[in-house]
Amino acid sequence: MSDGLVNLQGSPAGPGAQRAAAVLLGLGPEVAAQIFKALDEGTVRLIALGARGLRKAPAAIPVALSSFVKTMTGLDGEAMAGNSLLRDAATKALGQEVANRVFDDLPAPSLAAEEGFTTISNADPEALALLLSREEPQTAAVVLGTIDHAHALAVLKHIPQAQHPQILRRLAALDTVAPEVLQEVGQAISQELSSAVPANTRKLDGRNTTVNLLRSVPAAQQSEVVGEIEKDDPELGAALRSRLFTFDDLVHLTDRDLQTLIREIDMTQLTVALKGAPPAVKERFLKNMSTRAGQMLEDEIGAMGPVKLAAVEAAQAELVKIAFGLAEQGRISIVNPTERMV
Questions:
Q1: For residues 43 and 1, is the Cβ–Cβ distance under 8 A?
Q2: Other CB atoms closer than 10 Å to residue 250's CB: what's the count?
Q3: Domains plus CATH for the chain?
Q4: CB-hemisphere CA count at 13 Å for 58?
Q5: What is the three-class DSSP state of 255?
Q6: For 160-195, how does the pLDDT look when each residue is reduced to its tens digit (9 = 90+)?
């Protein structure tokens, strides 16, 4: 643009500078500010001189604008229609690849794709967190600042909390990162991820899927399947059983079966278990107890101070275990909420 100003004028602040200043005035301050960002200081200085010339001779503004409009209307029609002039200008300023992308309305590549972050962006949060926890805080900050917000949050949850202050302090201070730094970090982390996790692997929640499948079959069949699993893996069998039938599910026992269970359990343990149970579960137990026993239970629960959640969960798990034991003996029948009783 500066060449055009000098060529159109005999002096640095001649008609070309005035035309440029007049056009920018017409475009408004916001657009003018964006244009100024793309110009060097010498060019802006020439426009400033032109603006001062317009201030001294206000009548020059219409003349300058008329000259600009005349120049524009004199452009070749085919060039205007095909925007080849603007494409050429963009090519000179931004390069052929970017110019073709913007003028052909093609999507811009993401930062992750440009700088080798594709593997990182698709990485399992837990695996990526394990890797970043062994890196320098600055490296972890660069990675978290590059991937999308939801992914970054999921990754941070798996990084040891003691490392959070150092990583987040550096992340908060990040403003700009050189492309070569991003590329180096992206390639290094991607290679480590590829080595640690085989390509195309997917993380599955097999245990949760198993529980959902078992819940779709009758309780008797559930117990049979889990019993077979427990023969080979007692820990896994117990974990599945605890998720298939919870303490809250005891409300689905018949009155007779619930009364049988109450006779087999320790009242102190029941008191702790009911401390954190929903009102419906509590009422179900009280309904199947004598008035005196129920009143004593309520009094004990009311007099009990705060109880650790872990203690409540342990007591509830033990009562469920007792219920399963009674079911295996054939003394009670455990049913799912979806099963119908006749």
A1: yes
A2: 21
A3: 2-74 (no CATH), 113-196 (1.10.220.30), 245-328 (1.10.220.30)
A4: 0
A5: helix
A6: 989 999 999 888 888 877 777 888 888 888 888 777
